[in-house]
Amino acid sequence: MIWIWSGFIAFVLLLLALDLGVFHRKSHVIGVREALAWSAVWITMGLSFAIFVHFAYDAHWFGLGLGIDVVDGLANDGASAVGKYLTGYVVEKSLSVDNIFVIVMIFNFFAVPPIYQHRVLFWGIIGALVMRGAMIAVGAKLIHEFHWVLYIFAAFLIGTALKMLFMKETHSDPGQNGMVRLVRRMFPITEKFHGEHFMVRAGTAAACEAEFPGAAPTCDSVVEKARPGTRLLTPLALALVMVETTDLIFAVDSIPAIFAITGDPFLVFTSNVFAILGLRSLYFALAGAVTKFRYLKVSLALVLLVVGVKMLIAGWLKKVLGEHFNVMLLLVVLAILTVGVLASLLADRRDSKKS
User: Fold this and answer.
1) Where are the domains of the chain?
2) Per-residue pLDDT tens for 131-153?
3) Which residues make Cβ contacts (< 8 Å) with residue 22, sequence separation at least 6?
4) DSSP class of residue 215?
């Protein structure tokens, strides 16, 4: 079993190395067309992985599918594993879209230049993968040892869904975030951006110009108050802290959501990873249009409500709908998201005609 985990993690690391070291080696502003192309690449890769899942679980490669899925009490064959993987992927992907709203606000607050946003998101996703991997490992252990934890997850999801449906949304000030305030107390901060660097050394403007050729405008008052040689965090680092903090908060919702679908750690982890890997390109594709999806929150709330209820009555659903009721859950989730997107686009078009 360790071989499949090692192989998948090595594959993901290879993709990330190619992404940053080859395709995005030089910082540049990512346009909508490029973002859509990369989104198509990541989505195709995520969906294509379902083919591997089908054959691996059908033939029990590396021991996959030999155990019982604690969520529905069934052993996962190729068809059921694919249904659960795709449902988890769609749910996690849709929840990551909600994360884009917050990232837009963070970048606007810190005035992060578009040319450096990809770098922040890249390292943000590295941190997200590590955090979610740890949370999935803990969650899988908990539900394996204590099945009743599933009902706590279900109650949490239903409560989150009701909160999203009925509570007014409030926009907090990123500058007042507890983690950002803690970082400000612990480290000296420069108010200037210094290229794509998260950390720089204090010094004279001449020294800064020598370290960052062509960055003279940003080297004015590098931080005269700091002792030369002192390490300073840049605003780009603060933006990264906020992105990581935000993903941790969103993971608290998304991890229980995926465990409502399956308790198989491999399906949980792989669906999460492929959903997160495409977040950067999806951000650049949708950042300018997030306000158009006014009913996205409602759709996501309904999705969380459905998977939460499903977790509570999984045994009854299995008896009524059969062993492959997870495929029906996938169709319901897709239908809810489709209706939400179409309703948002129609409402936006109607408003445009009125104006």
Assistant:
1) 2-169+257-341, 190-231
2) 888 888 888 888 878 777 878 87
3) none
4) -
Helix (H) or strand (E) holding 59: none
Question: Using DSSP, how many helices (H) and how many strands (E) does the chain show?
Answer: 13, 4
DSSP class of 299? H
Cα–Cα distance for residue pair 185/294, rounded to 1 Å: 38
- Give φ, ψ of 225 to 5 degrees: -75, -20
Residue 154: what are its φ and ψ, rounded to 5°? -60, -45
Element holding 293 (H helix, E strand): none
Beta strand segments in the chain, E = 68-69, 74-75, 199-201, 231-233
Q: CA 141 to CA 134: how far, in whole Å?
A: 11
| All residues at 6 or more sequence positions from 178 whose CB lies less than 8 Å from its CB, including other chains | none
Residues 6+ apart with CB under 8 A from 294: 344, 347, 348
**pTM across the whole model:** 0.78
Both tokens of 164, joined, read 């999203």
56 pLDDT higher than 90: yes
Per-residue model confidence as pLDDT tens digits over 208-248: 554 455 544 444 444 445 566 677 788 888 888 888 887 88
Residue 244 CB contacts under 8 Å (≥ 6 apart), including other chains: 124, 127, 128, 131
Distances in whole angstroms, Cα of residue 187 to Cα of each of 181, 194, 200, 232: 10, 17, 12, 7
